[in-house]
Design brief:
The chain is an alpha/beta fold. It contains 19 helices and twelve strands. The termini are far apart. Keywords: Methyltransferase, RNA-binding, S-adenosyl-L-methionine, Transferase.
Length: 458
């Protein structure tokens, strides 16, 4: 049976799941090219996006339901069939798709990709799935929350158990341990598209959408393709989460002793924060140098900075030992590689790829990057350490260890800069932690450290 019966939107979602499974692709990166390939726009593009992203967010929930509806272990179900069944489960349990349409289109997809026999299997499984709604499946499959809160939340909110525990500990670190379910639920809500105006090149009044509540440079796009916004198409504005915008603003506004001429982005790829920092630096007569280890990401940074004023250049180098003069920068950003558990709304597949073992490698890298930044900043200058993760090992513990090992580093209180951002206190006094369920941003952590000593002259 040919592919003609499979509609393009479901084909796109199926291809996204395959790319994530086979090539470790990221949904938000592979999806746009597939939408263009199949010429999907408007409602069809929105349907494909929700079908793919929503399925990946709810993977653990749907696998538990499917496992209850099959007579064989899921690991023995052909991967392509399982991908299609997951898409069908999402349509049945979380989308406004009529039952008959959800089942029939999924069966057509399986028949097209695998064969008639697999189509019959998919039909039988999905009919069992459709016999209950999502809440009824939770009641049957999830352990009671008072008896096993981690197991309950892991199934109901579709997060690995270790991630539930790590995020719960992060919330406890700021005195909000009772908000775990709210945070996990927020991770499963598709984020709004947020635009950023790059000062000196555009302003947010020319961007469509509602002004962001905390960043002075952003708007929340109500609908439409951001690439069709003239300022975005011309590189004078960009797509950037409000939390990421606030990282750049926090570095730019951190109190400084002495001159303010040379800024550095030490982990610059893919370039969104660099572009905003360059605009902010140029407005003060300062310049920005960007460093990125991976060549293909360094090229993305160059594209992001194309046409911007005040850019010294992009250096492809290891940020832990870059070929730069120690003490030669006034402001340094370390947007460190991390688990990314603060951006699960945008990268739903990340929750299934990370493991507790990743923390050991990442934390070591984060500490070395922060030490490198403190070596590169001059006395009196400031370093902003940021992660898109609230996990305490990557936030509180990295900063605390650095302060202990580097007696010349002093923590700067960020609270005065964030008086307009309620409930954003971080796990260390003076640090900031944003949250998806509180601020509708990625869970960005920020800490500013000043290098002690006599500042350079003006």
């Amino acid at each position: 049976m040919g592919r003609s019966r499979v509609d393009p939107a479901r084909t796109v979602a199926f291809e996204v799941l395959k790319a994530v499974r086979v090539h470790d692709a990221y949904t938000n990166l592979v999806l746009p090219s597939l939408l263009r390939k199949h010429r999907l726009t408007g409602r069809d593009a929105a349907f494909a996006t929700e079908l793919a992203s929503g399925t990946l967010r709810r993977l653990a929930t749907y696998d538990a339901v499917l496992d209850a509806c099959t007579d064989r272990p899921l690991r023995k179900v052909e991967a392509k069939v399982l991908d299609a069944l997951r898409l069908g489960a999402h349509q049945l349990l979380a989308m406004r798709v009529p039952q008959h349409a959800a089942i029939a289109t999924t069966v057509d997809l399986v028949r097209s990709e695998v064969g008639p026999g697999a189509g019959g299997f998919a039909n039988a499984v999905l009919r069992k799935v459709s016999q209950r709604d999502l809440e009824a499946w939770f009641a049957e499959l999830a352990p009671a929350r008072d008896a096993d809160p981690v197991g309950h939340d892991a199934l109901v909110h579709s997060h690995p158990a270790w991630v539930v525990e790590a995020l719960g500990a992060a919330l406890e670190g700021v005195g909000a341990g009772d908000e775990v379910a709210d945070l996990l639920a927020a991770d499963n809500v598709a984020p709004a598209v947020t635009l950023v105006a790059r000062p000196g090149r555009s302003n947010r009044e020319e961007l469509p959408g509602e002004p962001t509540p905390y960043s002075p440079h952003g708007v929340v796009l109500g609908s439409g393709d951001p690439g069709q916004v003239p300022a975005v198409a011309e590189g004078r504005a960009g797509v950037q989460d409000e939390g990421s915008q606030l990282v750049a603003v926090a570095l730019a506004d951190a109190p400084l002793e002495g001159r303010d001429e040379h800024w550095l982005d030490l982990c610059a790829g893919p370039g969104g924060k660099s572009a905003l920092l360059a605009a902010l630096a140029a407005g003060r007569g300062a310049d920005l140098l960007a460093v990125e280890r991976q060549p293909h990401r360094a090229e993305l940074v160059r594209r992001a900075l194309a046409g911007a004023d005040g850019v010294r250049g992009v250096v492809t180098a290891d940020g832990t030992r870059p070929p730069l003069e120690p003490g030669s920068f006034d402001r340094v950003l370390v947007d460190a590689p991390c688990t990314g558990l603060g951006a699960l709304r945008r990268r739903p597949e990340s929750r299934w790829r990370r493991s507790p073992d990743d923390l050991t490698v990442l934390v070591d890298l984060q500490r070395r990057l922060l030490a490198s930044a403190l070596d590169l900043v001059r006395p009196g200058g400031v370093v902003l350490y940021a992660t898109c993760s609230p996990v305490l090992a990557e936030t509180r513990d990295v900063v605390a260890a650095t302060l202990e090992q580097q007696p010349g580093a002093q923590l700067v209180d960020l609270a005065p800069q964030h008086v307009q951002v309620p409930t954003s206190a971080g796990p260390l006094p003076g640090t900031v932690q944003l949250w998806p369920h509180r601020h509708r941003t990625d869970a960005m952590f920020m800490a500013v450290l000043r290098r002690a000593g006599e500042p350079a002259g003006d």
